[in-house]
Amino acid sequence: METPPEPYDKTPPGSYTSSKESVFEGNTTKRRVDPSDVVPLWRKIAYATGSLPYSMCNTVVGFYLSIFLLEVAILDPTYVLIIVFSGRVWDAITDPVVGYLCSITRTRFGRLRPWMISAAVPAGLVYSFLWFVPGPFDEQPSEIKFIYYLLLYFAFQALLTCIHVPYTALTMHLSNDNKERDSVTLYRICFELSGTLLGILVYTAYFAGFVGFGVKQPCEAGGKRLPDYSKRWAYLCHAITLGVLIVIFILIAFLGVKEQKDESMTGKRISFFKGVREVFSFKPYVILLLLELFSWLAVQFVQGNMALYVKYSVGLEDQYPYVIAVLLVSAIAWMPFWQWVILKFGKKTAFSVGMWVFMPCLVSLLFVPFYKYLIYPMGFLGGMGVSCAYLLPWSMLPDVIDDAVLARDVRREELFYAYFVFGNKFAGGVTLGISTAIYKLVGYDETLCTQPWQFSLTLKLLVSVPPILFILLALIFLHLYPITEQTRENTKRLLAARRKLQSSSVEENYSDRRRSISITNRSQGSYRKTSNKDDKDENDPKQTFF
């Protein structure tokens, strides 16, 4: 078997050497990036814009869906539990199916972008109806409301999958260079966090306009909750606004991003179940998937219970939007710091530091109710851990895919990203489902304006104890994760050498074919010339014999 040449002994033709250096494991290496792999700034921004719909909607769903269904739609907690858990089962079907369909799609616009643009308008419409409480529902049995929200939730999650699975897989089609992919991922995560903040701000603006801060829920004399029409209008108007923004942002990403065509390692089409086996038989991916799942479960347990925690445990319901704003702005501000840590010490070290900083912030939530305004500095420090949980697993995924390409000589990035997206959404669903079931066990009653003291204690435990346990599990899988900075660089070199060999082989085959065609044409030309001369001699009167 021929040994691939060392592609970095000398600068290959058509590439340049950057003056920037990346430091890892005590070594300093010069970056060499092919110009075709450099992603322009405007394209990074256009691509990152496509992350806003998912982050906006998912954040509002994570923070507000349970409280909307319980206290605005006045749905029984059991029905809320069924909606959320069955939605996760539905995701377990749609995420891998969409990933597989993307892998076999072939259009002139690429494999991924058509899925995004075709699902944008339906997703905006369904999201708007998801937050709508029809007036006649107040007189209808709870089962009618349950079926209505169940079907809309299923439809929205399926459409969101059709947008987000191909969108995240686009990362692998923008560049073949690891550093460029890391940069693109950083832009995407920064925009995602900005999207979470944008979603909260849009909701807060309509809430302030229709409801106002410090306004109590309308109640009957017996403490029963009455329909709050001002909150219904606030939720509906925010949903319509975000529905329009979904279409605008996806259109910008569709027009601004071009898929890089690299069919050299795409491989032939395979069946759905063979694709599943191919993905889950790759050990580094399974470890990273579990790492992402547990770290995201920690974040989602805080996010999913924070609204009720601030309202019932801390007693700062009217300041909840400001608390979330501090958390999200802090998470965005810490992003450049994490990028520096990645370049200086590596991704595994960065993730470990972020999680160990995050855990003391979670412990402090047990004591915040005794010192209410401590929630602001803890929110700022907690943003450091949240940004790490957002950025690092997604930044590590392209490294795993490159490792799989090196091991199997086939690219299946759509399937890898599909299950990663499912893990992300599964964490949110599990959080809402488990939390809602616990609410029911401790005596929460959606029809009452005041809740028992056990409910306040339960909320303090939910935002602290389970997240810490999940972070510890994530750190265990981080220890088992086999890809280091040194193996990343080695994989990059070997893949570059493989692409160079394949490119040379294609060029040689093309040159041989051109030479063969040229020789054939010359032979046919000589034959035609001789034939024409003979024909001319036969028809010449001077050469006719009598």
SSE topology sketch:
Layout: E1 16-24, E2 27-33, H1 41-49, H2 52-71, H3 77-104, H4 113-130, H5 142-169, H6 171-174, H7 178-210, H8 229-256, H9 272-280, H10 283-314, H11 320-333, H12 335-345, H13 347-364, H14 375-408, H15 413-441, H16 453-462, H17 465-480, H18 485-539
Antiparallel strand pairs: 1-2
* CATH homology-level superfamily: MFS general substrate transporter like domains
User: In angstroms, what is the radius of gyration?
Assistant: 29 Å
Instruction: Give the topology string: H per helix, E per strand.
Output: EEHHHHHHHHHHHHHHHHHH
Please state the average pLDDT score.
Answer: 79
Q: What are the low-pLDDT stretches, counting only 5+ consecutive residues below 50?
A: 1-30, 541-546
Fraction of residues in H or I helices = over 70%
Number of helical stretches of at least 4 residues: 18
Strand elements, count: 2
Largest sheet: 2 strands, antiparallel
Shape: globular
Compute the number of structural domains: 1
CATH T-level topology: Growth Hormone, Chain: A
Which class in CATH terms? Mainly Alpha
Give the N-to-C terminal Cα separation: 72 Å
Structural class: mainly alpha
Question: What CATH architecture would you give?
Answer: Up-down Bundle
Beta-strand percentage range: under 5%
Strand order, largest beta sheet? 1-2
Describe the structure.
This protein has 546 residues and is mainly alpha-helical. The protein has a single domain (39-274, 283-497), classed as Growth Hormone, Chain: A. The protein is 73% helix and 3% strand. The protein has 18 helices and two strands. The protein has helices spanning 41-49, 52-71, 77-104, 113-130, 142-169, 171-174, 178-210, 229-256, 272-280, 283-314, 320-333, 335-345, 347-364, 375-408, 413-441, 453-462, 465-480, 485-539, and strands at residues 16-24, 27-33. It has a two-stranded antiparallel ribbon. Helix 10 (283-314) packs parallel to helix 15, helix 11 crosses helix 14 and helix 13 (347-364) runs antiparallel to helix 17. Residues 1-30 and 541-546 have low confidence and may be disordered.
